[in-house]
TrEMBL record:
Belongs to the universal stress protein A family. It comes from the Bacteria. InterPro entries: Rossmann-like_a/b/a_fold (IPR014729), Universal_stress_UspA (IPR006015), UspA (IPR006016). SUPFAM superfamilies: Adenine nucleotide alpha hydrolases-like. Residues 1-146 form the UspA domain. This is Universal stress protein. The lineage of its organism: Bacteria, Pseudomonadati, Bacteroidota, Flavobacteriia, Flavobacteriales.
Amino acid sequence: MKQILLPTDFSDNALHAIRYATAMYRDEKCTFYLLHVFEVPYYPIILMSTDRLHDPAYEIALERSRNALQDIMLRMGPVKNSDHHFKAISRKDTLLHAIKLLVKEKNIDMIIMGSKGARNARGVNYGSNAVTLMEKISSCPVMTIPRKARFRGFNEIVFPSSFEIAYEKKEINPLLELAGRFEASIRVIHIGDQEELTEIQKKNRKLLEDHFSGLNCTFHSLSNIPPAAGISCFAESRDTDLIALVNRKHSFFYRLMETPVIKGISFYSRLPIMVMHI
């Protein structure tokens, strides 16, 4: 049975991500954990112990959180899939710390959450919570769902790679699993300035070919264009359903996250992103 963690702040975007997740796993047995992390205003440090359970401010915040989670369940409507089970969790904590604990405690397979966009001079910007989890959660994949995304299965998945890193098969297993389950095509895109690949890049490209054997996989290349813009152009020109990235130091994702443009790139307002970790 899959264990799926669904962080929520009770926004419409978060509810949309929950519905996306249930549709994505409609054919699988799943336990969905709806998590709300809350704060208590002016919470005294002296009460950071079991005594906090008797603090009025904490009790009020906890009750509000639990009630709001029940409201989310009601808004979702009756559970139509008997193989889907939902559990609501309210915790006073930071979002990152609470999720790290739950991932270990519940053996979470995937985190799925909404991606908040705040328009600024650079365009649509990813929410700080989504960025933090994509960067810091290392024990399971994180998938972010934009408000405009509608689940229709995964027919095509774009996987950017510099071919500078040799990925082990287990590192991209979430991608392989999704592609196999939905019979999705994988489009590996390489963006670089050099005309020819180095010997190391050729070796790593061949390794990816081996990992993707048995799947509908093609390789594409773009040059003389910034990586984030290249991914955007490639995805917008196709009927892409998902962007898959690997978060590893010095990886393609790692370089993108250090570039401000990743937070303002236009395709993030439309396409889900899955970040895998090692």
